[in-house]
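User: Molybdopterin molybdenumtransferase. Structure?
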Amino acid sequence: MSTAPEDWVSARRAVHAAGWRAQLAPVTVPLAEADGLTLATALAPRSDLPAFPTSSVDGWALRGRGPWRITGRVLAGSVPAPLTGDGVAVEIATGAMVPEGTEAILRVEHSTRSGDLVDGTPKTEQEWRMPGEEARAGEPLLPAGTPVTPAVIGLAASCGHDTLPVRPAPRAAMLVFGDELLTSGPPADGRIRDALGPSVPAYLRRLGVACRPATPPIKDTLDAHVEALRTALDSGVDLVCTTGGTMHGPVDHLHPALTELGAAYVVNTVAVRPGFPMLIAAIPHGGRPRFIAGLPGNPQSAVVALVSLVVPLLAGLAGRPEPTLPRVTLGEPVPGRGDYTHLALVRIDPVDGLARPVSHVGSAMLRGLAGARGFAVIPPGASGRAGDEVELVEVP
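Assistant: Predicted structure:
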């Protein structure tokens, strides 16, 4: 069976859309458990921010003309009595509620105190924050689809929230196809060491996915492939990542296994080098779509497939927008790959900040990948020249 490879940009868009249609149902979690998840609804404050007039400085809340007679103190966390009468002052702390009737605040460093009198010249600008200065109650501050970071958690707390509605972390399983692979020790006797079983789950975890360790390599039979995929799907995961078997050779059983399971391709082969025999398939299981990501067996090609297709799929499942790629400036030429998008491994030079190609970048090699920041994107029919600004697909 021959399949025309899909354009790299279109393939990313297609898998993101598939993930978006199948995005995970929201759950509500305490703030302490929300880091790394995704807002399922817009974040809005429960009250005005600030909720009451709040002093921006340590000093004196004043009414009337000075010198002012000190009548008390107001600290953060208390409700002060109004200022009445002229020529009065109360000491006030940063963050404290400003008493009703306050006409100015005099900074402590600009004041002179003598007994129960204080004198000085307040600034002409207001030294306190007004209710709603940062936001009004119910005003959307962050949209649904925003990744939850410590800063978002802090904002949510300041808005009065104890919990957040979020999209949960996708769950994944990892299957390694190829009974010629070793899982320990050095390569020998015609058998090579499996490099993807240990590394792909680690990549997925860095992408916010709950992923169990890889299974031992699956035997090169159709029955073994079907059984392994069924077992993984029955475990309740949202995504099964597989390595190897994405071509149509004598021991490549992934495509027949997908057919037997009733899967439908979202993307089947992509016009990208390295790594074009990659795929994403969807399969109804447990009442909703689950996904199978077929990564090539060559290690660098598998990582290309991961960043090309799995990353946008996961964004869709989490309800996040399609990832926007940062841009870098090339410090050296990078060749194109004809009609294919070329994902070229680059490092970022610490001296001039330019992206420069690394060596040892064969599809079966990992040495270059280990020292790279990511892949410079060279579009089909183009080459990268020194000084060109190009997109960068970062390695997790």
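The two ends are 33 Å apart (CA to CA). The domain at 54-129 is CATH 2.170.190.11 (Molybdopterin biosynthesis moeA protein; domain 3).
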